[in-house]
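Example 9 (inverse folding). The structure is encoded as follows.
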C-alpha cells in the first residue's frame, strides 16, 4: 500500500507510523470533537417530521388549521447568545436560556393560495417559543378598541411569564400602524432579568384588528459588551476576508487568462471540465434542493408571486456558474500541473474516467484518509487552548441539512466547499502563475504555501478569537502540500474532505433525534465501506499509467515540452558556439552584438585571430530555428577552423581565400542541410599592415559596408563582383552557388560593418539605410569598450522598434575599426 517512492526514502518509517497510528488520530479527534464541538453538543431532540408535527399542533391552539399547507423548516443559531450564556450563571441565566436559547428551529406553514402563513419558533427540545402569523395586507379584520387589544396582549404576556415562574408585570409599550384601513397594534415589554444587565429580552405581541398575529421574544446583547467580551468584531478577521477576496480575484483573472491560453494551445479537456463543473454544481445544489433555506424567507412574505421552483432554479444556476468557475479553474491549472509535476493527476484522471476501483484511486483514498486524520487532530489540538475560555471557542455552524429531506447525504457533500475552494484558490490557480514568474522551486514553495494558507483560513471557518484560525490553517496547509507533493492532487483533496465528513457525521450520531442519529450512522457506514473497498483495491486493483488515463490533449503538452527541451538545448549550444570574448588587437577596435528574436535565432557571428595580425570575421544569417540552427553553426565552425587558423589542416596548395571558403562552406551546407539552403554567409579577412579588406558572401545578407573615420563618408566603398560555381553536393541535384566577393584598402580610422537582414529592416529612419545609425555610433570616436556599449544600446533600441512594428527578427552587427596611429588616436 505504501508507494515505492516512499519506501526507498529515509522517511519510510515515518509514513508507516502515520499509517499505523491514523486510527488513533481519528479516535483522539472524535474524543476532542465530542467534548468541545458545539454542534456535537447541541442535543437536538427533534427532526424535520417532529418539528412539523409540533408546530402544526401549536398553530391549531392559535386557531389556525395548517392541514394541506406547505411546510418549511430552517435552523437559526445565535452565537452571541451562546457565548454570553457560557459567561453567566444563576437562575436568571437558566430562565433566559429557556426563553431565548442559542439555537431555535423555525417552522413555516404557508397557505395554498399564499395569502397567509404562520411561523412557529421551537427550541431544540421541541418546546414552542412563540409564533408569527402573517396575512396579505388587503385582508379584512374586525376592529376592536385599544383597551381590549391591550388586555389581550396583557393576557398573552402573563401566560408566557407564568410558564417561566416570573411574577412581575412589565409595562406594555404600544406602537400602532394602519394598513389597508386595518389597525395593527404592536406591544413590546421587557423581561426582568436583574442579574443579566447586558441582555435585553423583549417580548413582542402584535394584534391586527381583533386577531393575535404574533407572540415571541427577541434577545439582544449590549453592543459595547459584545464588542469587548464576545469578540464579535475582529480586525484580523476583516483583514483575512479582504486578503481572501483579493486572492480569489487575482486567481480568477489569471485563471481566465490561462484558460484562454490553453484553449489556443489546444491543451484543454472540455469533457473533464464539464464533469467537474457538474459534480461541484450538484454538490453545492444539494444544500439548496434538499433544505428550505433558499425559499424560506421569500415564502414568509404573503402574496409573493414567484413560485418556489423559480427560486430554486435561480439558486441552482448560481451554483452552476460557481461550478463552471471551478471547472475553468481546473482546466486552466491542470495543464501546468501535468507539465510541472508529471503524475500528480493520474489518480484523479482515473476517477474522472470511471476507473474508481483502480489501484491509483484506491491508494489516493486510503492515504487521503490517513493524512486527513492528522489534519483533523492537528486542527483540534491547535484550537484546544482556547476552547472553554470566556468569549472564546467555535461558533455553532448552520445545521439546516440535519432538518433537510435527505439527511444522510449531508456529511457526504458537506466537504465539497472546503476541499475544492482550497484546491482551486490555493493550488490550481496560483501554481501556474508562480511557475512563470519564479524559476526556483525553493522560491515557489513558500509563496504557494501562503496561497494555500489563505485558502485554508477562509472566512467560512468560525472560531473566536479569529487569529486562531490562522494558526490552525498552518497545519492544514502543511499537510495538504505534503499530500500533494508526496502523493498527488486527488490524495490532497481527499485529505481535506475526510475531516469534514467525519466531523459532520459524528456530530449527527450523538444527537438525541433518532432520524438524525441514523442518518449520521448511514453516512459513516457508506464512508467506511468506501474505505474498506479502497484498502482492498489498493492491493488488488489495476494500476494505470498516466498516458492510459490522461486526456488526449496531454500528448500536445508532451510534444510542446519536447520542443521546449530542444529549443533550450539549441539555445545553450548556440551560446557555447558564440565567442565568449572578442579578440584584442593593437590594430583594431572590435564591437559585436547578436540579439535573437526568439530563444534560438538563425544569426551567428565569430571572429578569428589569423597569422600576421590579420582578423577573420564570419557572419551568418537564416540558419533556422531550434537544433538545426546550432547544427549549422557548429558545422560552419568545424569547416572553417582547420582552413584559416595557423597550423590548420588545410591541404597544401589549397585556396583559402574568402571566396573559396564561403563557396566550400555553402556547398557542404547544401548537401548536409537541404532545408538550410537559405543561409546567408559572409566571411572577411582584414590585414592591418596595408589595410586590405577581402571578403566574400552569399545571399542578400549579411551586408558589408565601410564607414569613414568618426562617422565621416569613406573615401570609397568595396568593389564587388559576382561569381557562379556549380555544386555537385546538393541533395536536390546540381545547382549554382552565387558568391559575391569584394575588396578594398581601408584607411586608418575607417570601419568595416557587417549587419544582417533584421538590422536592415528595422534599423532605419524615414526609409534611410541603417548606415546612418552606424555613423552616429562611430561619430564620437569611442574607445573599444564604449564602442561595444554604444552598439549594444543601438541594437536593443532596434529590437524595440521591431517589436512595435510587428517585424521581429534576429539582429546581428559587427564593427571592425582600423585604429588610427597613436598621434592621431583620441583618448
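The amino acid assigned to each position is listed next.
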Amino acid at each position: 500500500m505504501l508507494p515505492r517512492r516512499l519506501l526507498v526514502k529515509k522517511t519510510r518509517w515515518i509514513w508507516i507510523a502515520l499509517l499505523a497510528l491514523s486510527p488513533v488520530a481519528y479516535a483522539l479527534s472524535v474524543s476532542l470533537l465530542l467534548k468541545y464541538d458545539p454542534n456535537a453538543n447541541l442535543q437536538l431532540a427533534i427532526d424535520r417530521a417532529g418539528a412539523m408535527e409540533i408546530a402544526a399542533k401549536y398553530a391549531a391552539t392559535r386557531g389556525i388549521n395548517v392541514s394541506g399547507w406547505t411546510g418549511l423548516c430552517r435552523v437559526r443559531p445565535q452565537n452571541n447568545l451562546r457565548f454570553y450564556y457560557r459567561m453567566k450563571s444563576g437562575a436568571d441565566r437558566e430562565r433566559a436560556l429557556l426563553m431565548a436559547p442559542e439555537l431555535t428551529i423555525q417552522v413555516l406553514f404557508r397557505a395554498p393560495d399564499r395569502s397567509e402563513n404562520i411561523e412557529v419558533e421551537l427550541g431544540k427540545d421541541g418546546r414552542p417559543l412563540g409564533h408569527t402569523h402573517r396575512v396579505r395586507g388587503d385582508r379584512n379584520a374586525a376592529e376592536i378598541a385599544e383597551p381590549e387589544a391591550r388586555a389581550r396582549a396583557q393576557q398573552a404576556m402573563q401566560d408566557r411569564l407564568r410558564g417561566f415562574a416570573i411574577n412581575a408585570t412589565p409595562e406594555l409599550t404600544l406602537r400602532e400602524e394602519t394598513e389597508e384601513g386595518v389597525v395593527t397594534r404592536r406591544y413590546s415589554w421587557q423581561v426582568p432579568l436583574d442579574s443579566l444587565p447586558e441582555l435585553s429580552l423583549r417580548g413582542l405581541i402584535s394584534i391586527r384588528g381583533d386577531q393575535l398575529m404574533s407572540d415571541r421574544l427577541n434577545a439582544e446583547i449590549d453592543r459595547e459588551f459584545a464588542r469587548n467580551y464576545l469578540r464579535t468584531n475582529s480586525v484580523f478577521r476583516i483583514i483575512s476576508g479582504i486578503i481572501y477576496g483579493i486572492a480569489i480575484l487575482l486567481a480568477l483573472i489569471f485563471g481566465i487568462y490561462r484558460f484562454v491560453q490553453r484553449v489556443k494551445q489546444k491543451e484543454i479537456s472540455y469533457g473533464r471540465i464539464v464533469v467537474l463543473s457538474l459534480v461541484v454544481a450538484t454538490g453545492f445544489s444539494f444544500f439548496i434542493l434538499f433544505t428550505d433555506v433558499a425559499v424560506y424567507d421569500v415564502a414568509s412574505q404573503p402574496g409573493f408571486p414567484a413560485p418556489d421552483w423559480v427560486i430554486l432554479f435561480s439558486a441552482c444556476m448560481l451554483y452552476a456558474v460557481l461550478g463552471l468557475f471551478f471547472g475553468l479553474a481546473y482546466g486552466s491549472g491542470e495543464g501546468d500541473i501535468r507539465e510541472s509535476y508529471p503524475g500528480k493527476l493520474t489518480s484523479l484522471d482515473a476517477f474522472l474516467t470511471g476507473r474508481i476501483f483502480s489501484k491509483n484511486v484506491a491508494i489516493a483514498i486510503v492515504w487521503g484518509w490517513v493524512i486527513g486524520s492528522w489534519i483533523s487532530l492537528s486542527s483540534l489540538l491547535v484550537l484546544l487552548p482556547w476552547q472553554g475560555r470566556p468569549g472564546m471557542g467555535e461558533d455553532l455552524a448552520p445545521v439546516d441539512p440535519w432538518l433537510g429531506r435527505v439527511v444522510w447525504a449531508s456529511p457526504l457533500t458537506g466537504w465539497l466547499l472546503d476541499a475544492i475552494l482550497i484546491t482551486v484558490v490555493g493550488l490550481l490557480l496560483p501554481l501556474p502563475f508562480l511557475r512563470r514568474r519564479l524559476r526556483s522551486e525553493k522560491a515557489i514553495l513558500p509563496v504557494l504555501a501562503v496561497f494555500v494558507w489563505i485558502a485554508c483560513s477562509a472566512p467560512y471557518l468560525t472560531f473566536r478569537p479569529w487569529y486562531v484560525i490562522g494558526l490552525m490553517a498552518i497545519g492544514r496547509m502543511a499537510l495538504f502540500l505534503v499530500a500533494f507533493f508526496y502523493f498527488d492532487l486527488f490524495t490532497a483533496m481527499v485529505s481535506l474532505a475526510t475531516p469534514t465528513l467525519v466531523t459532520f457525521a459524528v456530530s449527527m450520531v450523538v444527537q438525541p433525534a433518532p432520524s438524525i442519529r441514523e442518518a449520521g450512522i448511514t453516512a459513516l457506514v457508506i464512508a467506511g465501506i468506501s474505505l474498506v473497498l479502497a484498502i482492498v483495491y489498493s492491493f488488488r486493483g489495476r494500476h494505470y499509467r498516466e498516458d492510459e488515463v490522461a486526456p488526449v490533449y496531454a500528448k500536445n503538452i508532451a510534444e510542446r515540452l519536447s520542443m521546449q527541451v530542444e529549443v533550450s538545448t539549441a539555445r545553450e549550444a548556440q551560446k557555447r558556439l558564440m565567442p565568449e570574448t572578442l579578440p584584442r588587437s593593437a590594430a583594431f577596435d572590435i564591437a559585436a552584438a547578436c540579439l535573437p528574436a526568439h530563444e534560438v535565432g538563425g544569426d551567428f557571428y565569430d571572429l578569428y585571430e589569423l597569422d600576421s595580425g590579420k582578423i577573420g570575421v564570419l557572419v551568418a544569417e537564416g540558419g533556422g530555428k531550434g537544433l538545426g540552427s546550432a547544427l549549422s553553426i557548429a558545422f560552419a565552425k568545424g569547416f572553417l577552423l582547420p582552413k584559416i587558423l595557423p597550423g590548420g589542416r588545410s591541404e597544401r596548395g589549397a585556396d583559402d581565400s574568402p571566396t573559396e571558403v564561403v563557396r566550400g562552406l555553402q556547398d557542404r551546407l547544401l548537401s548536409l542541410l537541404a532545408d538550410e539552403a537559405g543561409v546567408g554567409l559572409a566571411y572577411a579577412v582584414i590585414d592591418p599592415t596595408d589595410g586590405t579588406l577581402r571578403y566574400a558572401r552569399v545571399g542578400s545578407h549579411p551586408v558589408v559596408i565601410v564607414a569613414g573615420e568618426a562617422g565621416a563618408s569613406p573615401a570609397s566603398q568595396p568593389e564587388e563582383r559576382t561569381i557562379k560555381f556549380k555544386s555537385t553536393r546538393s541533395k536536390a541535384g546540381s545547382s549554382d552557388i552565387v558568391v559575391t566577393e569584394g575588396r578594398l584598402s581601408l584607411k586608418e580610422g575607417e570601419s568595416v560593418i557587417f549587419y544582417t537582414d533584421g538590422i536592415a529592416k528595422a534599423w532605419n529612419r524615414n526609409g534611410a539605410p541603417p548606415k546612418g545609425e552606424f555613423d552616429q555610433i562611430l561619430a564620437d570616436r569611442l574607445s573599444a569598450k564604449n564602442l561595444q556599449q554604444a552598439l549594444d544600446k543601438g541594437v536593443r533600441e532596434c529590437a524595440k522598434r521591431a517589436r512595435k512594428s510587428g517585424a521581429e527578427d534576429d539582429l546581428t552587427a559587427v564593427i571592425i575599426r582600423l585604429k588610427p596611429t597613436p598621434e592621431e588616436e583620441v583618448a
